[in-house]
Amino acid sequence: MILLAVLVSALLAPQLAPHDPTEQDLEARLVPPFWTADGTSHHLLGTDALGRDLLSRIIYGSRISLFVGFMAVAVQGVIGVTVGLTTGYYGGRFDAVVMRLADIQLAVPLFVLAIAVMTVLGPGLRNVVLVLGVTGWVLYGRVVRSEVLSIREREYVEAARALGGSGPRILAKHVLPNVFSSFLVISTLEVARMIIAEASLSYLGLGVQPPTPTWGGMVADGRNWLMTSWWVSTLPGIAIFVTVLAVNVIGDFLRDWLDPTLRHG
Description:
Number of domains: 1
Strand content: under 5%
CATH superfamily: MetI-like
Number of helices: 12
Helix content: over 70%
Number of strands: 0
Shape: elongated
Order of helices and strands: HHHHHHHHHHHH
CATH class: Mainly Alpha
Radius of gyration: 22 Å
CATH topology: MetI-like fold
Oligomer: single chain
């Protein structure tokens, strides 16, 4: 239900947001949420240092977080599954070279690598998606490869090969459906990680640039007023926490549901 609410907010942001998320009103700066003594129903979650409505900015910020999360995972999945299928099925020198490249990339933490690349490419929505997508394929590649190494020796794959099936056809028809459950679980959990990564990059000023509202950027905007105007950073931080928690719970459920040993254990 939480994730559904976030999805609806992202899709219907223009209809749900009570104010323009970039509209400034310096006479209404740092207005507290409505439930406090000085709050007002005109700004239900208060305003930031420029008088922008926090509720509207949180609603619009969900668009960026979900878009980056899903698109980065899509890029990761395409690259990682393709690499995992081909290296696991064909093996040989190609497999050895690609896996060594994966080991090298794993030696550098994802976030550090993302910061380095974003510093070179520059901030922006497209660059955030590309950087997080291209740098996160290794997990998919290694998991899919390990499963393909086992699947390629099974009888139905051997039979398809004996009947003259080509490698791409066998991979698409017999191997890919058997690794899809693992791909789905990893993708769900990676969406949560990408949301946090995007928020972290935006917090550092390397993600989507102002005035576009992002949850990480909103947390950064309010860090100078934490002691006096806590809501500016805390409320978008809660949005990140709740959304990531919801995605992780769904990922755990899918893992248990798709794994018979966990489902019946």
